[in-house]
Amino acid sequence: MRRDVEMVRRNFGGLRQVTVVNPKGGAGKTVAILLLAMTFGQKRGGYVLAWDNNETQGTLGMRAQQDFHARTVRDLLRDLNQFHGSHGRVGDLSQYVRAQGEGMFDVLASDESATGGGMLTATAFAEIREVVSRFYKLIFVDTGNNVRAQNWQAAIDATDQLVVTMSARNDSAETAARMLDHLEQSGRQRLVRQAVTVVSMPPSRKEIDLPAIQAHFAARTRAVLLAPYERLIDSGEPLRYAALSSAARDAWLKIAAAVAEGL
Ligand SMILES: Nc1ncnc2c1ncn2[C@@H]1O[C@H](COP(=O)(O)OP(=O)(O)OP(=O)(O)O)[C@@H](O)[C@H]1O
Ligand SMILES: [Mg+2]
């Protein structure tokens, strides 16, 4: 455990981006973003951002702690000129990101209306990344379900460490496997090879073909780790580090250390 904490606390030598992917809904992406950001935030003492790069209605903001404002990535995009050049201080960004208190990280939520806003372009992604990269050392990017979306591809191109999540079900694993095919075919073989796979467990292990899933992703990615079933996570309520069981904290520290190894 001490080695894991040391790994998570290391100086990575610059800004690093971790991107969590699986085009299947309910694959545990948003949960992983929050638990990783919490674990890194706690162990490193801040400078961590969790950014919801869903085009609309990502659930990261809902599963995080609320702040005094409910601004989202759309508001930041609209006001980007305030951060142009060397303008904008870290305090100014507090108008757009939601502080997570004892979690020691911030959340940049996605647009919460069902119909609001248009597509997020690759340029929009790059502009936001440029601004937030001035104030954070580690950025965790949650992604949507459309691999062809510009902002999905832009997030992949800026990725230092890929995390592939899935629930321990064949449909979730198969969607992930096809996405890895796509990444390999589009020149991102190294990202795939270095990826960390996280499989979240159901309440009971009956009827799941875990060994086949583990074997497939162990052959293609750097590490495969299991995320234990946790009732609080399944409740849909906002997550708090202090409310997690010690088993969940330990498991996510191991996952965080595996992620940190690639940074
Ligand atoms: N470790 C876990 N323990 C218990 N339940 C879990 C765990 N991981 C994920 N879940 C369940 O899976 C649900 C979906 O997870 P999550 O919202 O993270 O998926 P997602 O991949 O972000 O989906 P979407 O693409 O729709 O945004 C959670 O709300 C929770 O009910
Ligand atoms: Mg999600």
Q: Summed up, what is this model?
A:
With 263 residues, this protein is α/β, with parallel strands linked by helices. The protein is built from twelve helices and eight strands. Strands 3-4-2-5-1-6-7-8 form an eight-stranded mixed beta sheet, with helices on both faces.
Instruction: Write down the secondary-structure element order.
Output: HEHEHHHEEHEHEHHEHEHH
Taken together, the total number of domains comes to 1
Give the helix tally.
12
CATH homology superfamily: P-loop containing nucleotide triphosphate hydrolases
General description of the model:
This protein is of the alpha/beta class. It contains 12 helices and 8 strands. The chain has an 8-stranded mixed beta sheet, with helices on both faces. A hairpin with a 6-residue loop joins strand 3 and strand 4. The longest helix is centred in the N-terminal third of the chain and has 16 residues. The protein is globular, with a radius of gyration of 17 Å. The protein starts with a helix and ends with a helix. The structure holds adenosine-5'-triphosphate and magnesium ion (MG). The site of adenosine-5'-triphosphate has 17 residues, from helix 2 and helix 11.
Features:
263 residues, alpha/beta, Rossmann fold, eight-stranded mixed β-sheet, 12 helices, 41% helix, globular, binds adenosine-5'-triphosphate, binds magnesium ion
